[in-house]
Amino acid sequence: MTDPVPFDIFLVSVPGLEAVLAEEARAAGFADARPLAGGVGFAGTWVDVWRANVELRGATRVLARIASFRALHLAQLDKRARKLPWASFLRPDVPVHVEASCKRSRIYHDGAAAERVARAIAEELGAPIAEDAGLRVMVRIENDLATISLDTSGESLHKRGFKQAVARAPMRETMAALFLRQLGFDGSQAVIDPMCGSGTFVVEAAEIAAGLKPGRARSFAFELLPGFDRQAFDHLRAPDAVTEPGLRFFGFDRDPGAVRMAEDNAARAGVGGFTRFENCDVADLTPPDTGPGLVVVNPPYGARIGNKAPLASLYRTLGATLKTRFAGWRVGIVATDGNLVRATGLGLEAAGPPVLHGGLRVMLWAASL
Ligand SMILES: C[S@@+](CC[C@H](N)C(=O)[O-])C[C@H]1O[C@@H](n2cnc3c(N)ncnc32)[C@H](O)[C@@H]1O
User: Fold this and answer.
1) pLDDT score for 234
2) What is the mean pLDDT of the chain?
């Protein structure tokens, strides 16, 4: 796992946010990171794989490409898969799960393709194949070209490992981080979420400001790969000096249960000292004395929770509060319905393409007040 020869690394992205994730990856020092369909590609080494998993806030998972070859039929897939040096990629004592997807190819049966590769691994290396394995081999066959990758993350990277309490319709941490970046948040501004639910935006912003690595506490699938160097990894993951950003990250919600959850989540993430959550209806919200910063909010969408009719009035109230009391702030609203967004009367404009999330097309809308 310490082979310095670069290979293809693919960061899976929430569809629609590839360009923002590429920007984050370049800013993190992955200089040739470029947006592709569904993610971001760059060449790197295993240490880059570790670092991408630990440091990038917007990646959903990190895939390491281990092989690529033509496969016109299942027997050929089987034969070529058997020839791969599996012992340099996987351990014989660690169970793996194999998944396949076929597109525009003569091999069209996902299940059959996965089964051939799984059998090759089981028979050539001796690793157990198990549905619930912590390590996943991904086979993608497109235009008769088979690409084999390892999912080096394991559980989706939006699971930072701190959020136990979840409100209704929570925002994923990865999306929250990319929306914050799209709004120009660089860690220096104050941030308010007037409908914070479990507090995702606020905690994410506070972590960014404090210089906390998103993967500082969770485990990763790459820890199960051969030659994984625990000591070198611990060194790479060691905390940078934490910046004390001061109290400038605030969440409000009219649901007292959500406020308690957000407080607990912030405390577990180690940002309780510079976040504050309060029970407040958006109609009564006033700005903190931090000076203008960023308001970021995803109000109820209507598609998943509640009914649309009363929502127009909620969006109007949000708009009126921000317009009258938040002059000088920048606002970003994540929503699914352009009509509701217009009901705010804030002159919000789309800040990026639609983002597919949980079967919904959500969009970030932004304006300076
Ligand atoms: C879609 S959820 C936000 C989820 C949040 N971003 C998270 O990550 O958990 C919308 C939130 O708006 C809150 N809400 C609805 N009406 C409100 C109002 N009038 N004032 C304040 N909060 C309100 C709800 O209680 C809910 O927590």
Assistant:
1) 96
2) 94
Name the residue with tokens 């086979």: 139
| Two structure tokens written together for 142 | 């497109």
DSSP secondary structure letter of residue 234: H
Q: Is the predicted pLDDT of residue 93 greater than 90, yes or no?
A: yes
pLDDT reported for residue 343: 94
Say yes or no: CB of residue 265 within 6 Å of ligand 1. no
Once rounded to an integer, what is the mean pLDDT over residues 288-314?
A: 84
Ligand 1 site-directed mutation target among 202, 249, 253, most atoms within 8 Å of CB = 253
* 171 touches ligand 1 (CB under 6 Å): yes
Q: 220 near 152, Cβ under 8 Å?
A: yes
What is the distance between the alpha carbons of residues 273 and 294, in angstroms, rounded to a whole number?
19
Which residue's entry shows tokens 């969440």? Answer: 251
DSSP per-residue codes, 140-185: EEETTEEEEEEE-S-S-TT--S------SSPPPHHHHHHHHHHTT-
Res. 297: pLDDT tops 70 = yes
Residue with tokens 């914050």: 180
